[in-house]
## 1
Amino acid sequence: MTHFLASLLLAMLVVAGFICRAPEKAMRRLLRWLTSLLYRVQVIGKDQIPAKGGALLVCNHLSLADACLLTAACDRPVRFIIDKATCEKWWARPVARVLRFIPLTTEARPREMIEALREATECIQQGQIVCLFAEGEITRTGLMLPFRRGMSRIMKGVDAPVIPVHLDNVWGSLFSMQEGHFRWRMPRSIPHPVTVSFGKPLPSETAPAAVRQAVADLGPAAWERRKTRMTTLQHAFVRTARRHPLRMAMADSTAAPVSFFSALTKTLFLARRLRETWKGHDMVGLLLPPSVPGALVNYAALLMGKVPVNLNYTLSEEALASCIRQCGITKVVTSEKFLSKLNLKLPVEAVFIESVAAQPRFLEKLAALLMALFLPARWIERLAGSGTRKTVDDIATVIFSSGSTGEPKGVLLTHYNITSNVRQIGQVFAFAADDRLLGILPFFHSFGFTATIGAPALLAVGVAYHFNPTDAKVIGGLIERHRVTFLLATPTFLQIYMRGCMPEQLGSVRFAMVGAEKLQDRLATAFEEQFGLRPMEAYGCTECSPAVSVNRRDYRDAGFHQVGGKRGTIGHPLPGISVRIVDPETGMPKAIGEPGLMLLKGPNVMRGYLNNPQKTAEVLQDGWYVTGDIASVDEDGFITITDRLSRFSKIGGEMVPHVKIEEKLHELAGVSVQTFAVTSLPDAKKGERIMVLHTLQPAALESVLEKLAACDLPNLWKPRKDQFITVSQIPVLGTGKTDLRKVRDAAAAAQPLDT
């Protein structure tokens, strides 16, 4: 014992002596050790930090622990530029003094700011590593703030690199501001996994917006590190049902709410009943509307290790048969009542869910209950019907494109794609236990599947389903009865709800997200005036699972304002998604603010198209998905879609955008509903000619034509009177999106092709 105490005393004396002789080195080692207790730091690109010489690290800012995470990730000492108010707090003062933090505040006198920036410049010139959190504040929404211009002042005339740094999986951890302020929360795992990524060095004169883009570009690779901690949708569903057994999982207009545990039990019952029906099949066909039974059958297919293929019942019989043929489906699970309403003839055997679920026996219900209570998820999957265990890299579902421009293409989405997309959305909106989604988007719609099948399983939020998205009276009552907080719709559906829902019915809704087509400002304003809630435009595509970018409400607090949305844009890219704007012809990157072809990279990008490697190679290039959309990104990171590459006409050698013409026509007509649809037909003289479908009366059209002649559009863009075609309604798909193929067919039928 005496020997142990003597050894301990000697060790303490050695440590004390080390601290006295080298306090900075000792403090860094102490911080690294303390950080390792709470975080498991993984580092990507550490070799990008120069072994000698100065450099400026520019990093996103997610938590109070960011400086500690970077200290743990860097072998070289780092001088941090930290907010002066933070440096003066009692718990930070000793660390700031020993590690020689550089205090900076925008509230200081200009002279003090210049001195702080000059000190940072001198440190870099002396060969030190300096780190700047260029946002200036910790994000309150999980999205990056704009980068401030102080970095340009620091690097002016300095011959040293700027190194972008990206922190991932920090948001929502112990010291982040997920709820708008620091709040103690027990982490899900200790140590909490975090990834620190260092990008390629940039020239010292690189603009802040370009550095911000370089930081964002590190997100997809960092997100890959999360894959080992992810699980399949079915495993997540089982885990959520056991963690929150009594929380409402789903409801619809025809049935009482179902809790998560009850949903799991019913799913297991259906899985055992469907075992023989789906035996020997990997992909299984479903033709069911958004409803509790429809969701349960999807979960049953997933638990059985199958790939649910929700068939688009708004397609023609020919297109539907193509989808079934591509997947090798021989039986389709559907509802007898629903199929009779559709008046649709299936080319394969129909298995009615009413018969599958009929007359449940006591032993079947008991077996399902015991499995739900006691069996591990991997055993449940095996007993339910799958002999092999599925991983996050396996296909979760096949979503077919709308076929608006040709034969439907099957988009292969993995569990990793959908799980990542749900987590990305969850990071931005921080769903609470009492949040409820409106499930009107069909399961064959990628957002319908991700948001109303994936989100409940992963985020434990409830969903209120309804099979008919245009049934405004029922939907209004459904929102009111189940206190729906998130409205997911399309602009077309919003127009219907404005006519059929009372303002008080939407009183519980705190966020309305719309996509699939452009949200016109006049419609957003009209909806806000009626319901007191401005809908926010988001952007997605089936190939991206589908969410890519979102607008959200601004975050406001005393002395702080973070912009969450900008009118006319499709919002900020979700965390982990990188956006690149390039020239459509040369592929060269465009400058900030310049429009070009939009490419996307992220964990939510599809594996490819079903049995179509040629089409896959056309849209997936070096890991980037080619969207076909023409867009620009501003300095704050907000994206604006200007048109689709496929929605241009080349007239007299000039590219004419259809969307711009549509927007101007709606503006001149003063309407908030879809009244015009622009397409083009071949023309012998000019290559193509613009054609416009419309629903106006003759007198109203004459007024629009007069205004069109006097407006500021280029003359080449202005269609003549004989290029307008009157229709009873604009063709739309089941999702509410304009059916471009039918628009073109209608134009061709009205006027013979001029060849």
Note: The two ends are 102 Å apart (CA to CA).
## 2
Amino acid sequence: MPEKKRKAELLSPAGDIDGAAGAINAGADAIYLGTEEFSARAYAKNLTIEETIEMIHYAHLYHRKLYLTMNTLLKTVEFSKALSILDRLYLAGLDAVIVQDLGLLSCLHQYFPELEIHVSTQLSILSAAGMKWLKEYHVTRVVPGRELSLTELREMKKTGLELECFIHGAMCYAYSGRCLMSSLAGGRSGNRGRCAGPCRKQYHQPGQKDAYLLSMKDMCSIDQIKALMDAGIDSFKIEGRMKAAEYTAGVTSVYRKVIDRIENGEKYVVTKDDRTVLEELYIRSEIQEGYYFRHNSKDMISLSDPAYAGCSDALKEDIHRRYLEERRRYPIQGEITVCQGRPMKMTLQLDGHEESVEGAVAVRAEKRAISDADIQKQICKTGNTLYEISKLKIVNDGTSFAAVSQLKDLRRSAIEKLEQAVFSSDRQSVLQHEGLILNKLQVENRYINKQQYSEQNPAILIGVKTKEQLKTVLRYSYADGVIIDLMMFTDTVAELLRRISENRKKWYLRLPEIIRQKDIGKIREQLEAALAFTDDMPPEGIYCSGIDALRIAGEFLGRYGENSLHGNQEIRGGQSIVADQGIYIMNESAENAVLKHAASYTAPLELNRKELSHAIRKDARELIVYGYLPMMYSANCIVNTTDGCDRTKGTTRIIDQEGREFPVLMNHDYCYNTIYNCVPLSLHQEVSQLYQAREAAAFRMEFTIEDAGETDRILGFFQNVFSKGTPEGTEKDTWKGYTKGHFNRGVL
């Protein structure tokens, strides 16, 4: 059966085997699903390995594709199992794997050379810079952030990589992969597929009423499909692996019809019945079109009720009848020969494949010879297989007898042999000696990243976001360096930095935590301006909170040759790149991968003390010991949702129903919000021991919302901690409330 050439792929979710089959039956070009482990929807039913292999075969029969979502962060102890699962599915013909973890990404092409690599939206790729960075890892497709405009996506398409964009379903308030709210609130990490959905709860700003300030309405882009197709989007993705099979099948069927009409040059019409299906199938109160044509809006937020609306039984029953009632079976042709004294023989044909098997010897009938009807009845019972025998030629001498069990065995053997022929591939397992190879991988990582402990004490670095905080830091000689946000640069700040340099201290630049395609030009201009401000005292390095930032910093420092920026390469050549907390490094392979692009990295916030101790390069990592941790970054704006944003207010707070207050900083330069935890992280009780044991090359304090007085109090407290441990009698005076984050508990 020739494969129909489509302009754009329709990609549908599957939370279980019924959803997978229903999506294909309803017209999906490809489906994406997770197995029982390492899926970003850990609470979906998901599929067993055997069910996944069955669905790979089912999809391939109809010339469709199946992608595996292995898009969670992996701990070191999980790495071997993840590769083992991938190995089985790779040999079964898996078309692509969707990944977030940088360690897994770094070794996929080595172990699975014929497997397409798709980067998950969880990696938060927001620009062409990030896409270029991924090319080194043989990535073929990127699922970019849902917040990007169509104009930005057109620019990103110029990299040559495919783009897979969401068109329908639930939306997160935060940039995907940049949310720790569920993790910090209750230990259920969204990066590990276990988000508890705290954004669906009520919050309020001071003096206002409770509302669902962070709850996005569901996305429905049915009226924008032609514009997306014209922009060259390669794959249209429907969200919903947690939802019922009827949702998947129904939504897929509507988008299939509309896409086909456009491809066939027909009038672009979405019927009333089509809209009814989309609006009634598990929609969260109301729908909106997403970010393709707007940056944010109050209309995108479900302020009054985030619960799913009811779905009519009649609609569900109709969808079930059309797409889910019976498993679709692929027609095959067969021939069976039953002749006395000879082995029974069966031949099956499918799309140019023909396979024959022989069974038991037919014997002379003592009472009644087996009839053609008897043979037809048993041979055409294909049971739970993927096939139906639509045409069966029977050669029967009319004098023979064969037991029912013998006919069943013959049929089963024939189908198994046909499947082996149809689904066999030339792929070979690189992991066939898995234990040896994985051990070799670990040895290589440890060799490359061999620790080189310095006799010097670890550095103490301090990050600031205001000029007042910076002035306060200057009063403390124990700080070895300060980290400055790129947007802070003014003549006054440059003069303060000069005092740091004169005291033989180091200073660093921090790129914005969120870097979108629309902002690339502005960021490069600001980098050039910052260098001009500090021409005779250049920064020691650049902090990068994402893959987009890593690439931009590398270009700025002349690391990418033809893609590097113009400028003083001699000055920039000595500067380093630091992977900040937004670049997650949960396993040894991720550590190794990132240190090929950065001089050091920030210890992940979701590992506990024991898990952190497994790091190979403690001499190349920084540990945050104080600071309000960012819980989420969002393109939407709290103030814009409630009062309207005039770009003058820099901070606000949201308060949950337990009375906890979460600070919110508004970045007006790049138009995004950062919501911070209600209390700061502080490891003041542990830091002295960690410092003496050199558990990191640098210990960091991060100041965000603190005024000059509070900054001074915290810096003074830690000065004593680093010199002689926690001073008695001062802790309760300094700390009204704090958290140790995941240092003791970790995440699931």
Note: The chain has a mean pLDDT of 90.
